[in-house]
Write a structure and sequence with these properties.
single chain, about 450 residues, alpha/beta, TIM Barrel, Lyase, Ornithine Decarboxylase, Chain A, domain 1, 2 domains, eight-stranded parallel β-barrel, 17 strands, globular
Length: about 450
């Protein structure tokens, strides 16, 4: 079987879901459910586009966090290049109609398959590539043998359209990628350029360990490390290569840090601008990021931007008020007699995920929405540390624990619907077929749309 069609992963129709949900109050729907605030994610998307424009760099939107067409379009805006990163082929297949729409309007667009591709999936990738203009699709390469196998499949495929190649560079994350000081690096670069020719696009890195940062400086240093790391990689490119290389860097914390560096006049900002201006003379620079429209507690914990401040030129503060995804759950039991007041809710690790957040000892924080969590008593890891958190988690349910003085515990009752900020939005959305969409510019609790989430791999 050469291809795996989307039909293998059937999705509910948007119109059917809209008929069921639009106009309903969140208090009246089944739980658990994922809720996206359209106005918040739109604001986050616009801020990233504004920053990229102000810096004079390109932007590439990763879609793996949400896997929806609606938010993918929001990430790239209504005009200008529509460039994406995907982590699964099903994402690229579901973007195909939009790519064709862009190309029919002469709007530049492209997709990078954002991890080294399994050899068994190359034929499926070629099926997508042959439906779009040559060079629209690109792959990441970090291993010589894998590249040669990939090229062999291309050569054996009649009329295969050109596919771009980026070299994935490891600047410290130690997930995918090759290091520039590897003894095999020079041979890899030369071989890729020799075989791919003008389809060699440049170098790509993902600073995923920036999620472990705790300050604006940590995020800024990560961004500078990425840029300088890829500049080192370019030194292995033979002088005979005449194309203009693309250096694509990012992760949400480091891309977010670009907002700081653009809006400040500190020594770090001057260093960043100097390095960026120098690189832009020789290369095309591109930022990429994925979870930034949704955000989550992990991202807020990086403190990559100040939590408060004026939203000037799209430079949004990085705070919980900008988290665009929440989990709607229901209280199914309460345990006031325990050492800490506790309550059972209708969502566990399959809904919320089990990834920890370095800033507090839990798996989610209860918000003040829906009027159930007691006004200002929201757990703040840098402040009062008083409020309801997801203190323990199992597969299908979780235990909320009250943190702080017991006498200040805000009561919860069986049947209460509450909203929870998750630690990691990408994982929290993975178990759901669709998102319930609200818009806080009008009414935070009334459903205005439903976005279908792509299934499969």
């Amino acid at each position: 079987m050469d291809t795996i069609p989307i039909a293998n992963y059937p999705l509910p129709t948007k119109s059917s879901l809209q008929w069921q949900y639009v106009g309903k109050n969140l208090n009246d729907v089944f739980t658990p459910a994922v809720v996206i605030d359209r106005s918040v994610v739109k604001r986050n998307c616009d801020a990233m586009l504004e920053v990229s424009k102000a810096l004079g760099v390109g932007f590439r939107a990763h879609v793996k966090s949400h896997k929806t067409l609606e938010l993918s379009k929001m990430q790239v805006g209504e005009d200008g290049p529509a460039n994406f990163v995907v982590s699964t082929l099903i994402e690229a297949e579901n973007l195909l109609s939009f790519l064709l729409e862009c190309q029919a309007k002469d709007r530049p667009c492209s997709v990078i398959y954002g991890v080294p591709i399994p050899q068994s999936a190359v034929s499926r990738l070629l099926c997508i590539a042959n439906k779009v203009q040559p060079g629209t699709l690109s792959v990441l390469i970090d291993n010589l043998d894998a590249f040669l196998e990939f090229e062999d499949q291309l050569e054996k495929t009649p009329n295969a359209r050109a596919i771009g190649v980026y070299l994935k560079i490891d600047v410290g994350y130690q997930r995918a990628g090759t290091k520039t000081d590897s003894p095999k690096f020079g041979e890899l670069v030369r071989t890729v350029i020799d075989k791919a020719g003008e389809n060699f696009k440049g170098f790509y890195t993902h600073f995923g360990h920036s999620y472990g940062g705790s300050s604006e400086d940590d995020a800024a240093n990560g961004l500078l490390e990425e840029l300088t790391g890829l500049e080192v990689a370019t030194r292995a490119v033979p002088k005979s290569f005449k194309g203009r290389l693309v250096l694509t860097v990012g992760a949400t914390p480091t891309a977010t840090a670009a907002q700081n560096l653009l809006s400040k006049s500190s020594e770090k900002a001057r260093e960043f601008k100097s390095i960026l201006d120098d690189l832009k003379q020789k290369y095309s620079i591109e930022l990429h990021a994925g979870v930034y429209p949704l955000l989550d507690l992990q991202q807020v914990a990086t403190h990559a931007r100040p939590p408060v401040g004026e939203a000037k030129q799209g430079f949004e503060p990085l705070s919980r008020s900008n988290i665009g995804l929440k989990m709607l759950v229901e209280v199914t039991s309460v345990y006031e007699e325990r050492a800490k007041p506790e309550a059972l809710v209708s969502a566990g690790s399959l809904a919320l995920g089990r990834e920890p957040c370095k800033s507090y000892p839990g798996w989610g924080v209860v918000t003040a929405d829906l009027g159930n969590s007691g006004g200002n008593c929201i757990y703040d890891d840098r402040g009062n540390k008083t409020g309801w958190i997801v203190g323990r988690i199992s597969q299908e349910h979780a235990i909320l624990t009250w943190e702080g003085p017991k006498e200040k515990a805000m009561p919860l009752s069986i049947g209460d619907k509450i909203l929870i900020w998750p630690n990691h939005a990408c994982v929290a959305g993975a178990g759901f077929g669709w998102y319930l969409v609200v818009d806080s510019t009008s009414d935070t609790n009334t459903i205005v749309d439903v976005w279908v989430r792509w299934r499969g791999w």
